């Protein structure tokens, strides 16, 4: 029997979208992380966002979304009542809450933490794929990469400046290697005095001994202004005499989208190398 290749071609074109169809995109999404919420808005997917945490306050419109608890303490009943077809969780989300939601038939996708700028971009791509906004993500990432190159190109000949970042009090907590904050410091022409990985408990004595050129305080749940005064008591410290203790908005170090990464890099560069006009 002779095949009619015209009919075969028409048949294949008609059924291709059905056989190769992607999984249906989620229409009711709950975000359990501030950075995820911000990325959904950046990608124009806010109409599908039905629930967020109490910490999801950026952009301003996110404050109007239904609250389902904090980053770690999730109200399961509230989540279920919102009838999501997808919940985006973070590494801070209570594993028991995720297990419970999955047992109730709710799809939960774990979104990893980014360790550097490339990781920030990859996480953004992951969220974009979930929303079906891949092209939008590529455009945003390309623009952000271009801005990073423009900013860092002015630092090629500068001397590295030692930096200490404080994100906690009692105990004193800092951020070491293998985190996007460390990538920010390096890109800004600085060198992190902390050689350990991740979040690290430190002591004032260790900071005083290493005598960093710059101290950056991110007031995550504590009074940054008061902590700055505490450091200024050590009047012989170079960072004090040169007035290089600075307070960062907490969101600059905890919500790394490709766009906010560039904004944070610019701010940190201003503190680490104020002589460079960006």
What does this structure look like?
- This protein is α/β, with parallel strands linked by helices and 278 residues long.
- The chain has 2 domains: 29-111, Rossmann fold, CATH 3.40.50.1980; 144-272, Rossmann fold (3-Layer(aba) Sandwich), CATH 3.40.50.
- Helix content is 42%, strand content 15%.
- The protein contains 11 helices and 11 strands.
- The protein has helices at residues 5-19, 34-42, 76-81, 95-103, 117-131, 134-152, 180-187, 204-210, 224-232, 238-241, 258-272, and strands at 29-31, 49-52, 66-67, 86-89, 108-110, 161-168, 173-175, 190-192, 199-201, 214-218, 245-248.
- Strands 6, 7, 8, 9, 10 and 11 form a 6-stranded mixed β-sheet that branches. It has a 5-stranded parallel β-sheet with strand order 3-2-1-4-5, sandwiched between helices.
- Helix 5 (117-131) packs antiparallel against helix 6 (134-152) and helix 6 (134-152) packs parallel to helix 11.
- The longest helix has 19 residues, at 134-152.
- It is globular and about 60 Å long.
- The N and C termini lie far apart (73 Å).
- Mean pLDDT is 89; it is low at 5-22.
């Amino acid at each position: 029997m002779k095949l009619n290749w015209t009919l075969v071609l028409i048949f294949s074109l008609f059924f291709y979208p059905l056989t190769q169809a992607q999984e249906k995109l989620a229409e009711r999404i709950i975000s359990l992380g501030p950075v995820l919420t911000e990325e959904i808005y950046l990608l124009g997917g806010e109409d599908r966002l039905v629930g967020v945490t109490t910490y999801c306050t950026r952009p301003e419109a996110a404050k109007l979304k239904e609250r389902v608890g904090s980053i770690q303490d999730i109200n399961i009943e509230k989540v279920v009542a919102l009838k999501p077809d997808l919940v985006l969780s973070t590494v801070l989300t209570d594993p028991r809450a995720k297990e419970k939601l999955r047992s109730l038939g709710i799809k939960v996708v774990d979104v990893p933490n980014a360790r550097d700028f490339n990781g920030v971009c990859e996480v953004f791509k992951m969220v974009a794929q979930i929303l079906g906004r891949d092209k939008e993500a590529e455009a945003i990432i390309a623009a952000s990469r271009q801005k990073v190159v423009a900013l860092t190109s002015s630092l090629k000949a500068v001397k590295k400046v030692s930096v200490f970042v404080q994100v906690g009090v009692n105990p004193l907590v800092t951020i070491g290697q293998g985190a996007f904050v460390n990538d920010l410091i390096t890109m800004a022409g600085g060198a992190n005095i902390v050689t350990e990985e991740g979040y690290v408990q430190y002591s004032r004595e260790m900071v005083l001994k290493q005598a960093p050129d710059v101290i950056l305080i991110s007031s995550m749940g504590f009074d940054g202004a008061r902590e700055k005064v505490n450091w200024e008591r050590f009047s012989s410290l170079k960072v004090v005499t040169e007035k290089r203790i600075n307070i960062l908005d907490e969101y600059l170090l905890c919500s790394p989208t490709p766009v906010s990464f560039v904004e944070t890099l610019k701010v940190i560069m201003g503190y680490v190398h104020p002589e460079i006009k960006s």
